[in-house]
UniProtKB/TrEMBL annotation:
Sorted UniProt keywords: Glycosidase, Hydrolase, Signal
Signal peptide range: 1-29
Protein name (database record): DH200=94 genomic scaffold, scaffold_913
Sample GO molecular function, one term: hydrolase activity, hydrolyzing O-glycosyl compounds
Segments forming domain Glycosyl hydrolase family 32 N-terminal: 54-372
Subunit organization: May be present in two forms, a 70 kDa monomer and a heterodimer of the 30 kDa and 38 kDa subunits. The ratio of the levels of the two forms within cells appears to be regulated developmentally.
Domain Glycosyl hydrolase family 32 C-terminal, first and last residues per copy: 375-573
InterPro entries in the cross-refs: ConA-like_dom_sf, Fructan_Metab_Enzymes, Glyco_hydro_32, Glyco_hydro_32_AS, Glyco_hydro_32_C, Glyco_hydro_32_N, Glyco_hydro_beta-prop_sf
Record-stated family: Belongs to the glycosyl hydrolase 32 family.
Listed GO biological process terms: carbohydrate metabolic process
The organism of origin for this protein: Coffea canephora
Length: 580
């Protein structure tokens, strides 16, 4: 599926990045090009694993969310789209609009190759709504067969069209071209612009210098003439090319979101980058020094592969925007398929946008919290409620009365204080591993867990030939506890040739109330999970063969020696929004 990087490539990164573009374990960087498939129109659309309430066009390939923007009562989602086939290529900015972020109306593509400055592709970028309620899109145009990248702008043809259907690319494009000595093929994905105290606009472009990821900073007085700042806003060694940077403020205290230009003592900044080489993203929280126009990550935020991630699973090229109608910042991320390009061509589609998430700063100031937009709850149908049920070692309880292949589940587990004492010791040698490797060794059926593994078995077949467990394991490390959350696709399907990692992240959670909560959004071929109210999020793409449609089941389980209690569990069948 050519999307994710194995642990081996990370060692290559650590060793100084000598062969990052070499395929390792069959996994390569950047979008893989399949010339034979690129323009193969899909006549049939495979329904089996199609999602019901995640954003998808009728057919063909999608990748990065672009834009997005809220304008005059309408949400606009633009996204990278191949109108001709189910693999990456022929990229345009597809356009859909919504008034609730749930039901979508597709429109014609907003931006497509037509001019010398974007003849070979209209790649990712962002929207900015300038003062006077004037939207503008900045995007990367591809100008030749070598993928040389320039930055262009587009404006709505008619501001009184409520849907802003048509976009114009003025003739004074491109606005920014690579200079001599700059890397012309790692120079892309302009951010939403923000205004500095000096009244000048600023944007970032993603790129690299040798093996150092770079967020190039550009300034402009009039949004047309852009000058590169002497210093990038931020760089990090050994991270390779940065794609789709995102830079925005978050309130230090409080739950509402901020417009991108807000500065001041009450805010921290977030810098997110997408790592071209590994196809994972990380973010840091930090201080934006507006005098020097530099960003300094906090001590608690690490640059690089081991940094904080929005999502420890299949989530890439994300982009946030400020929704001033509800004073919140919303994050969109793309999840690629985890099957083969051949499977994608056969099913006629590839890629989904994950459910938009509201982002806020964790009160601990050390990470973000993410939660599905509340509008999603309007799709909830039949409900099942459980409470007070105790799960002993080996218990598996089925949740019936809803549609398990298309569901939203929220569960809170509780446990005794004594169980914390009996948690499995955290093996000190695991400190060198990341969470995914620990999950690989301590999966949902591995014995020896005192407290955990417990959680959900999603998209499960009746006799558990297939299931995607989403679960916690609690470990004891001296006087502290380490909480691991896994979404393990290894047992998800009987089909061969799939990418089935044991995605996992650690959860920085206070266990003094002896509770752990989990929410999973299950939608046929995706399980999107939120641990401890959005501290750790993991999305997995899975393709069951038995656990499909009405043959799918949902269970709650405990394989730890210590009992856990289902404090409350609510599961809902999810209805299908209007999308096409
Ligand atoms: N996808 C776009 C690029 C971006 C990459 C091309 C990230 O602009 O860097 O489709 O997935």
């Amino acid at each position: 599926m050519g999307h994710f990087c194995s642990e081996k490539i990370l060692w290559v990164l650590a060793l100084g990045f000598t062969c990052v573009l070499v395929s390792i374990n069959g996994v390569e960087a950047s979008h893989k090009v399949y010339p034979d498939y690129q323009s193969l129109t899909a006549s049939n659309v495979g329904r089996l694993h199609r999602t019901a309430y995640h954003f998808q066009p009728k057919r063909h390939w999608i990748n990065d969310p672009n834009g997005p923007m809220y304008y005059n009562g309408v949400y606009h989602l633009f996204y990278q789209y191949n109108p001709k086939g189910a693999v990456w290529g022929n990229i345009v900015w597809a356009h859909s609009v919504s008034t609730d972020l749930i039901n979508w109306t597709p429109l014609d593509p907003a931006i497509f190759p037509s001019k010398p400055f974007d003849k070979y592709g209209c790649w990712s970028g962002s929207a900015t709504v300038r003062p006077g309620n004037k939207p503008v899109i900045l995007y990367t145009g591809i100008v030749d067969h070598n993928n040389t990248q320039v930055q262009n702008y587009a404006v709505p043809a008619n501001l009184s069209d409520p849907y802003l259907r048509e976009w114009v690319k003025p003739d004074n494009n491109p606005l920014i071209v690579p200079q001599a000595g700059e890397n012309k093929t790692a120079f892309r994905d302009p951010t939403t612009a923000w205004l500095g105290r000096d009244g000048h606009w600023r944007i970032l472009l993603g790129g690299k210098r040798k093996h150092r990821g770079v967020a190039f900073l550009y300034r402009s007085r009039d949004f047309l003439k852009w000058t590169k700042a002497k210093h990038p806003l931020h760089t990090a060694a050994g991270t390779g090319n940065w794609e789709c940077p995102d830079f925005y403020p978050v309130l230090k205290q409080g739950s509402y979101g901020l417009d991108t230009s807000v500065l001041g003592p009450n805010v921290k900044h977030v810098l997110k980058v997408s790592l071209d080489v590994t196809r994972y993203e990380y973010y840091t929280l930090g201080y934006y020094d507006t005098d020097k126009d530099r960003y300094i990550p906090d001590d608690t935020s690490r640059d690089g592969w081991n940094g904080l991630r929005y999502d420890y699973g299949n989530f890439y090229a994300s982009k946030s925007f400020f929704d001033h109608s509800k004073n919140r910042r919303i994050l969109w991320g793309w999840a690629n398929e985890s099957d083969s390009a051949y499977d994608d061509v056969t099913k006629g589609w590839a890629g989904i946008q994950l459910i938009p998430r509201v982002i806020t700063l964790d009160p601990n100031g050390k990470q973000l919290l993410q939660w599905p937009i509340p509008e999603l709850e309007t799709l909830r149908g039949e409900n099942v409620h459980l409470s007070g049920q105790v799960l002993k070692k080996g218990d598996v309880v089925e949740v019936t009365g809803i549609t398990p292949a298309q569901a939203d589940v929220e569960v809170t587990f509780s446990f005794a204080a004594s169980s914390l004492d009996l948690a499995e010791p955290f093996d000190p040698t695991w400190k060198a591993l990341d969470a995914q490797d620990v999950c690989g060794r301590r999966g949902s059926t591995v014995e020896g867990g005192g407290l955990g593994p417990f959680g959900l078995l999603t998209l499960a077949s009746e006799n558990l030939e297939e299931y995607t467990p989403v679960f916690f394991r609690v470990f004891k490390a001296g006087y502290q506890h380490v909480v691991l959350m896994c979404s393990d696709a290894r047992s998800s399907s009987l089909m061969d040739g799939l990418y089935t990692p044991s995605f996992a992240g650690f959860v920085d959670v206070d266990l003094t109330d002896k509770k752990l909560s989990l929410r999973s959004l299950i939608d046929h071929s995706v399980v999107e999970s939120f641990g401890a109210r959005g501290k750790t999020c993991i999305s997995s793409r899975v393709y069951p063969t038995l656990a499909v449609s009405d043959k799918a089941h949902l269970y709650v389980f405990n394989n730890g020696t210590e009992a856990v209690k289902i404090e409350t569990l609510d599961a809902w069948s999810m209805n299908r929004p209007r999308m096409n």
